[in-house]
Amino acid sequence: xxxxxxxxxxxxxxxxxxLAVWWFASAGSTSFYSPPLSRILTTFTETWTLDRLRADVLxxxxxxxxxxxxxxxxxxxxxxxxxxxxxVRAVLEPVLEFFRxxxxxxxxxxxxxxxxxxxxxxxxxxxxxxxxxxxxxxxxGVRATDxxxxxxxxxxxxxxxxxxxxxxxxxxxxxxxxGMRQALSIGIILMVISEMFAASNGLGxxxxxxxxxFAIPQMWSGILLLGLLGFALSxxxxxxxxxxxxxxxxxxxxxxxx
Length: 258
What we know:
The chain is mostly helical. It has a single domain (44-257), classed as MetI-like (MetI-like fold, Orthogonal Bundle), CATH 1.10.3720.10. 83% of the residues lie in helices and 0% in strands. The protein has 11 helices and no strands. The protein is globular, with a radius of gyration of 22 Å. The model has no long low-confidence stretch (mean pLDDT 88).
């Protein structure tokens, strides 16, 4: 319990310090573009009502969830195939490296030509950016499967779906989780970017509208909300990861103790 409280203290300590610095540094600000944090927080409660959260934040989260889910399914599925079959890896690796090097925001106009300007475009943009860290980490995780365990599974006749589930995916799961964690951060960025193109709602769209109408405190409140959402999603992901990979984290703690 003490260790948990200590970790929680470390998690919130730096944000609290940064907010305190921001509060005192901006307290006497008269700049139109950099209002005091006290004014931004007052505007925050006035702007982000339940109706606005439902109208703008909820659609953004649904798009993020859709794109992220597609990226996880495609990334893990293709990553297992590429990591397991040497011929497939030799054929696809140059192509994957080429497309990985293209920044996803550059593809937004191209995706708009084929997917239109509705939610499909935004989901595709998010999935296009999120898939790479998941895919590449899955490939490396699958390739790093212990050969002794592979030989043991082969000797005991563990093949097919059982081998995939209990050996390959379990062995690669720590690296897959690392890729999914990276993809979540990329997904939040692409969620905002995609909503800046031909959107009528969403957090990114709303922040840009505030900026264009010179509603500067509201714009800062939207940026603050975006940071809070990113932090909350990171905490949720970390909690799920600790539960799903309890065996792995327990093994690491045992190794440190020894």
